[in-house]
Design a protein that fits this description.
CATH architecture of the largest domain: Alpha Horseshoe
Strand content: 5-15%
Largest sheet: 5 strands, mixed
Distance between the termini: 59 Å
Radius of gyration: 26 Å
Order of helices and strands: EHEHEHEEHHHHHHHHHHHH
CATH class of the largest domain: Mainly Alpha
Number of strands: 5
Number of domains: 3
Helix content: 55-70%
Strand order of the largest sheet: 1-3-2-4-5
Length: 319
C-alpha cells in the first residue's frame, strides 16, 4: 500500500497501471467506513501477491485529485488499467464482493504464469532453442487453458515442427466455438496443406507437373488448389494466393469456397502481430500516435504492406 499525492500520482498510479492494475482508495480521517475498508484492501493486496497495486489518496488533503475523479462520497475505489479508470465502487463492501470485483478485472495467478511462460518461449525462439520454447508453451497452456495466445503460439510451433496430431488436439476446442476464431482456422488450413503434401501422391509432383495440367484446362480447380497447397508447404505464400485468386475469379463458390477460405487463412497467418502496449506508448491519443497507427505502419512494415495489397486483390476478385 502506498500513500499517493499530486506529486507522485503520475508515477505511482498512471505509469504503474500500464503494467499492473492499480486500485485507488479515496478516504479521509473522519470517515468510519473508510477505516473498515482500508484493512480489508491491504489484506487483499497481500493475498493477491502483486497481481494488483493498492494506493490510498486522502481526499481532504488531495482535493485536486478527488475532483479530477469526481469523488462525491467516501470511501470510493477506482481501478486503473493501462493508465485509464476501468471500474470502481463506493462504500465499504464485504470481502466476498471485493474479491468478485477484483477477479472481474485482474488476471488470475494461472494467467500470469502462462503469460510469463509465453514471454520466455518467445525469447527462446529468438535464440533458436525451439525445443525449450515448445516446453514453455506447453506449460503455459497447462497453466491457463483459456490463454488463446499461448495456445495459438504452441499449435503454430507444433505444426511447423510436424506435430500435427498434438496440434489438432490443441485446435479442437477453439474450432468448436461460434464463430470460429479466424486465427485458429488459419492454422487448420495451414496444417491441412502440409498434411496434403505428405499424404497425397501429388505432394511428390514438381510444380511444372501442376502447370502442365492447368495449361490443358484452366478450370481444373482441383489441380490449382492442390498446387496452392504445395506452394503453402514450400512457404511461397504469395504464389499460393495468386493461384487461389485464379480459382476465386473463375468460381467464387467452388468446393464450398475452399479457395477464398484458404486465401483468408494465409492473410491471417501473414498479418504481423499487434505490438504490445507499454508505459512508453502513452495513451495513444496524440496526433502523432494516431497518424503512425493509422497511416504509416504499413509503409514501414513490408509484411503489413504485402497483406494490405493481397486484401485488396481479394476484395476486387469478389466484387
Amino acid at each position: 500500500m502506498i500513500d499517493v499525492t499530486i506529486q507522485n500520482f503520475e508515477t505511482e498510479v498512471i505509469a504503474a497501471s500500464m503494467s499492473t492494475p492499480v486500485l485507488v482508495d479515496f478516504w479521509a480521517d473522519w470517515c468510519g467506513p473508510c477505516k473498515q475498508l482500508g484493512p480489508l484492501l491491504e489484506k487483499l493486496e497481500e493475498d493477491y501477491a502483486g497481481r494488483f497495486k493498492l494506493v490510498k489518496i486522502n481526499a481532504d488533503e488531495e482535493q485536486q485529485l478527488a475532483g479530477a475523479f469526481g469523488i462525491r462520497s467516501l470511501p470510493t475505489c477506482i481501478l486503473l488499467m493501462g493508465g485509464k479508470p476501468v471500474d470502481g465502487f463506493m462504500g465499504a463492501i464485504p470481502p466476498a464482493e471485493l474479491r468478485a470485483f477484483l477477479d472481474k478485472h485482474i488476471p488470475s495467478a494461472e494467467a500470469l504464469l502462462a503469460e510469463s511462460e509465453t514471454e520466455e518461449a518467445e525469447a527462446l525462439l529468438e535464440s533458436g532453442d525451439t525445443e525449450a520454447a515448445m516446453a514453455k508453451l506447453a506449460d503455459a497452456v497447462a497453466a491457463d487453458p483459456g490463454n488463446d495466445d499461448a495456445r495459438f503460439d504452441y499449435a503454430r510451433l507444433l505444426i511447423a515442427e510436424g506435430g500435427f496430431e498434438e496440434a489438432r488436439a490443441l485446435l479442437a476446442e477453439p474450432l468448436t466455438r461460434i464463430p470460429k476464431p479466424l486465427r485458429f482456422e488459419a492454422l487448420l488450413h495451414w496444417m491441412e496443406a502440409l498434411e496434403f503434401v505428405s499424404t497425397d501422391e501429388r505432394g511428390q509432383w514438381a510444380l511444372t507437373d501442376f502447370d502442365a495440367r492447368i495449361a490443358e484446362n484452366k478450370r481444373d480447380f482441383d489441380t490449382r488448389f492442390a498446387k496452392s497447397r504445395m506452394l503453402i508447404a514450400l512457404g511461397d505464400w504469395t504464389g499460393a494466393m495468386d493461384e487461389l485468386l485464379e480459382i476465386i475469379m473463375r468460381d467464387k463458390t467452388w468446393n464450398q469456397e475452399a479457395a477464398r477460405k484458404t486465401f483468408v487463412a494465409i492473410l491471417e497467418l501473414l498479418t504481423p502481430p499487434k505490438p504490445k502496449a507499454s508505459a512508453a506508448d502513452g495513451s495513444g491519443k496524440s496526433a502523432g500516435g494516431i497518424e503512425l497507427a493509422g497511416k504509416s505502419v504499413a509503409e514501414l512494415d513490408p509484411q503489413a504492406e504485402l497483406v494490405s495489397k493481397y486484401r485488396r486483390k481479394l476484395s476486387m476478385s469478389l466484387n
